[in-house]
Structure formats: structure tokens, C-alpha cells
Design a protein that fits this description.
This protein has about 375 residues and is of the alpha/beta class. The chain contains 12 helices and 12 strands. Helix content is about 35%, strand content about 15%. Strand 4, helix 2 and strand 5 form a beta-alpha-beta unit. The longest helix is centred in the last third of the chain and has 25 residues. The mean pLDDT is about 85.
């Protein structure tokens, strides 16, 4: 991207993103989310702190964008649009991850005025059956889907150059260990289901943007080549992406199986991103839903001071050598079976260090 690497504390910058959690409160209670396992207090980030973080990140060119996401629904924050306006003035690109529940209401109406770099809708449950897993408290799937698509239609018309991403869940197997704790998780589990679901939603997208027959044919042909059981990113139209996330256990958050601590491993925490939770705690990665990898607090220090700490230095240096230093990282990267425990470090290295950068270079939404 034409920007040479520099150091900010112990980390190489620019990072691809920094996650700022405006709140860990969400109006949904998805069974596949570790919300029920989260024991840290709920709350909202102080608006002044959010603005200060954005200013420091922008002035020091720490990252290519800030992403409002770790846990919670960011549009519930009372100062959300004030913070968005501040990011615009600071020249900071913004990525918003939303569950989509408010897009058909006042939040979506106000959001139409903001030219976001990227807008991710965690659709996750793309039909009425799977939507029952969201704990939507009175909102029907029809209301939800109509609200999302009407917002998409209007936002796309206003800001055609913004990257728009629909996220879906899929799973490698019909039965997952986490189901022993949370019950059946009805998400896409076969290639046939994936292609059928993507085809239906692509049709809605194409209708909303009045796509040509050539665009429809090309997009559907690409969908017809996708397979389940893995991470997929499909550009169904210019700047419009469908992405599947393989259902995970959020760093061993689900299930009571004994986990062997990783003997080696590789992670992109502090390598392409880190997170700041709503109370100011700085954590190593966006998967740390419970603040277990706290390395400092941005309310008490600048980000540079936190990232210059010995704790961060040990973690970053360790991952450079495939050594897992932090106790929680050892658990997150660990495995319940001996074979997986033995082989996972090599798999992590291949996926995160070789394949993921290749995908990032090919998919503009990550650049």
C-alpha cells in the first residue's frame, strides 16, 4: 500500500485495523456468541476516550482504519454519530460491524449521511429457521431482512464506493462440541446450502442495485464454485462482498473439554490488529471477548505507552519466533486432541502467515 513499516512501541505499523469496542451491550443474544460466558462488566466507552484514541491513531498513522467491533452493537452508543463525525474530521477510515437490527430504524437513517470505508453486516443467520438463534426479542426475520436490504439499497445509492460486506456463518461439521453446551446451531454446513443461501441473497442484492444480467450471471457463476467448510470471500458485485466465517468456539469459550496448552503457535494479534475494550483495556486481539489478554489501559496511558510495555514486547517477540507467551493465548491456540495439539502450529503458520496475506492482497475490502 506504499507505506513503509515503522515502530510504534513494540509493534510494526501501520496495522490493518484497530478494534474499538464502543460497548459490549447487544440487543441480540445469539447462541453462537460468547456473550453468556462474558463476565466482565457491561458498559459504554466514554465518548472523549473514543475520540482521543482515534486522534492518536490518526496522528501517528498506526492503522489503515478503525473498526468499531469486539463485542456489542456499536450503534447503541449514545455518542456513536459524534464519534463517527470526529473520525471523519481526523481523516480516519472507519469500518463498522453491526448486527443489522437497527438499520431499518433511526440508526440506519442517520447512518446514510456517513461515507464509511467499510460496513459489515453480521447477517450470520440468513433464513427464518436460523434467525431463531439470535434471541431477537420480538423482531421477526422478515422485519430484520427487510430493514437490512432497504438500508443497503439506500446506502449503496448514496455511497457506491464504500465496501459493503454481508457475513454468514458456516460450519465444517453438522455437530460441533460447542453444541453440547448451547444446543443445535443451525448454520450452513454443506456446499449445497452455502450456494443456495448465497444465491438467494445475491438475488436480493442484484434487485436492489438494478444489476445487469451480465453482473448477475458472473456473480452467480462465482458462487457456484464456492465450497463449504472453509473461509470464503466472494465479490458478488463491485465493492459488495459475501463472506463466510467458520463457526468457532471463541478461543475455547464453549464446551468443557480439557484443552492442552499450545506448545507453539502463530497469531495476528498485535501483528495486523489489536483491540481496545469499552473500559479502555487494551487487548491483544479481536477474539478476546472477555479481556483476558489485557496489556494496559488507555484511560490511564497513551496507546504508545501501553504498546511500549514489556508485556507487549514479550508477546510480539514470541509470535515472531512461533512461541506462545501469554497464558490465555496458549489456551486459545490449544487443542483438546493430541493430534490437533501436535499439528495445529504448522497449520496456523500456513493459514495466518502464508494464505491469509495472499487473500488480503487479493481482496480490496481488506486493504
Amino acid at each position: 500500500m506504499g507505506i513503509s513499516k515503522r515502530r510504534f512501541g513494540h509493534i510494526d505499523i501501520p496495522l490493518q485495523r484497530v478494534h474499538i469496542e464502543l460497548t459490549n451491550i447487544c440487543e441480540f443474544s445469539c447462541v453462537f456468541c460468547p456473550k453468556a460466558s462474558m463476565d466482565r462488566p457491561v458498559g459504554f466507552m466514554d465518548t472523549g476516550l473514543a475520540k482521543r484514541l482515534i486522534t492518536e491513531l490518526s496522528e501517528n498513522k498506526v492503522c489503515e482504519k478503525v473498526t468499531f467491533h469486539v463485542m456489542g452493537e456499536p450503534t447503541l452508543h449514545k455518542g456513536f454519530f459524534d464519534i463517527l463525525s470526529h473520525a471523519e474530521k481526523a481523516g480516519m477510515k472507519v469500518g463498522l460491524t453491526t448486527n443489522g437490527a437497527g438499520l431499518g430504524g433511526k440508526a440506519g437513517e442517520k447512518l446514510l449521511a456517513y461515507n464509511l470505508h467499510q460496513l459489515d453486516i453480521s447477517l450470520q443467520t440468513p433464513d427464518e429457521r436460523s434467525f431463531s438463534l439470535r434471541g431477537a426479542k420480538g423482531m421477526s426475520f422478515e422485519e430484520y431482512a427487510n430493514g437490512v436490504m432497504e438500508f443497503f439499497r439506500r446506502y449503496r445509492a448514496a455511497w457506491p464506493d464504500s465496501n459493503f460486506k454481508f457475513r454468514f456463518l458456516n460450519t465444517r461439521f453438522r455437530k460441533k462440541k460447542m453444541e453440547e453446551e448451547v444446543g443445535p446451531v443451525r448454520v450452513m454446513s454443506t456446499t449445497e446450502e452455502l450456494r443456495e443461501t448465497f444465491g438467494k441473497w445475491a438475488g436480493l442484492v442484484y434487485d436492489a442495485i438494478h444489476a445487469s444480467s451480465e453482473m448477475r450471471g458472473s456473480g452467480l457463476a462465482g458462487i457456484g464454485k464456492l465450497v463449504s467448510y472453509k473461509w470464503n470471500v466472494a465479490e458478488v458485485a463491485p465493492n459488495i462482498f459475501f463472506e463466510t466465517y467458520v463457526l468457532s468456539n471463541w478461543g475455547q469459550a464453549f464446551g468443557g473439554a480439557k484443552v492442552r496448552d499450545a506448545w507453539a503457535g502463530y497469531c495476528y494479534g498485535m501483528r495486523d490488529h489489536f483491540g481496545v475494550l469499552h473500559n479502555g483495556d487494551v487487548v491483544l486481539c479481536c477474539m478476546d471477548y472477555n479481556g483476558n489478554t489485557k496489556v494496559g489501559n488507555a484511560r490511564k496511558s497513551t496507546l504508545k505507552e501501553v504498546l511500549s510495555s514489556d508485556a507487549v514486547g514479550r508477546v510480539v517477540d514470541g509470535f515472531r519466533r512461533m512461541k506462545v507467551v501469554h497464558p490465555y493465548c496458549k489456551k486459545c491456540l490449544g487443542s483438546s486432541s493430541f493430534a490437533s495439539w501436535l499439528l495445529r502450529p504448522a497449520a496456523d503458520l500456513m493459514v495466518l502467515k502464508l494464505l491469509k496475506p495472499f487473500f488480503y492482497s487479493k481482496k480490496r475490502l481488506y486493504g
